[in-house]
Amino acid sequence: MWLAENEGAKFWLNVLTELKNRGLNDILIACVDGLKGFPEAINAVYPETQIQLCIVHMVRNSLRFVAWKDYKAVTPRSHGRRRVAGAGCVREGMGCTVSRTVQ
């Protein structure tokens, strides 16, 4: 367990280095929240790791560009995708088309 007063890339670099020293040889995919310097810290210790932004953070960031009048029309579909139960539901959800266009 690691404790710190604040979370930053330097903190995570120390955590990742310690994990490497304890025998964690590789991380295939790291899902991150957008903390500045975090992807660089991961790749400094695990250079082959694929970095992916968390889907929840991606949705939140993209909703900043939606006009308030269109917000309600856009958000129900994105909320529904987060509640899918299994891989089959995910495939169905990702394959669906948007029934109306927001202008």
Structure characterization notes:
With 103 residues, the protein is mainly alpha-helical. The chain has two domains: 9-53; 67-95, no CATH class. The chain contains five helices and two strands; from the N terminus they run αβαβααα. Strands 1-2 form a two-stranded parallel sheet. The protein is elongated. The termini are far apart. Mean pLDDT is 78; it is low at 78-87 and 96-103. Belongs to the transposase mutator family. One of its GO terms (biological process) is DNA transposition. Required for the transposition of the insertion element.
Record the SSE blueprint:
Blueprint: H1 9-21, E1 29-32, H2 38-45, E2 50-53, H3 55-63, H4 68-82, H5 87-95
Parallel strand pairs: 1-2
Helix pairs in contact: 1-2
Function: Required for the transposition of the insertion element.
Keywords: DNA recombination, DNA-binding, Transposable element, Transposition
Protein name: Mutator family transposase
Give the gist of this structure.
With 103 residues, the protein is mostly helical.
**Overall mean pLDDT:** 78
Characterize the main sheet: 2 strands, parallel
N-end to C-end Cα span: 48 Å
- Spatial strand arrangement across the major sheet: 1-2
